[in-house]
Design a protein that fits this description.
Helix content: 25-40%
Largest sheet: 7 strands, antiparallel
Strand content: 25-35%
Order of helices and strands: EHEHEEEEEHEEH
Number of strands: 9
Radius of gyration: 18 Å
């Protein structure tokens, strides 16, 4: 599977529910520190980031609760599936994100893990603010109205 915007982008895992649960303020393409068996498992498409989030520890940003399945061929040198993984950002970006996260309601949510054109694993990290139930209902209404419009256009 490749992206419509970039044909060289191979999406491994995406968090589709994040756009429903959060208002996305800004997104960043960040690198991720992985070990060999994690990269091989990602190439097989065995990852899940639906429950993942990013936090600040020791002035660094870490991806938590991202599940990358164990690679069968790694044997005794396998990795822990839900370990904390360091994200690679510039110092200015880290300081900006830490400042925003300290404001009430902001979170760092991964939107997708993918391989770019240079075959490097990347994460799209979003600065997001949580939605209330009212906002979610409005999102559902808007989505249903767009579907109805497309049905009407197709029927004519």
């Amino acid at each position: 599977m490749s992206s419509k915007k970039n044909p060289n982008k191979i999406i491994v895992a995406s968090n589709r529910k994040a756009r429903f649960d959060y208002f996305i303020e800004e997104s960043f393409e960040v690198g991720i520190v992985l070990i060999g068996s994690e990269v091989k498992s990602l190439r097989e498409g065995k990852a899940n980031i639906n429950e993942a989030y990013a936090i600040e520890q020791n002035n660094e940003i870490y991806l938590m609760q991202a599940h990358i399945s164990e690679y069968k061929g790694a044997n005794q040198f396998n990795h822990e599936p839900k370990r904390a993984r360091k994200l690679l950002l510039h110092r200015k970006q880290i300081n900006k994100l830490i400042g925003k996260v300290k404001i009430k309601g902001y979170s760092l949510i991964p939107l997708e893990i993918y391989f770019n054109g240079k075959r490097m694993a990347k994460v799209t990290l979003a600065l997001a603010k949580g939605k209330q139930n009212i906002d979610k209902r409005e999102t559902i209404k808007e989505r249903e109205w767009k579907r109805e419009q497309s049905r009407l256009v197709r029927s004519k």
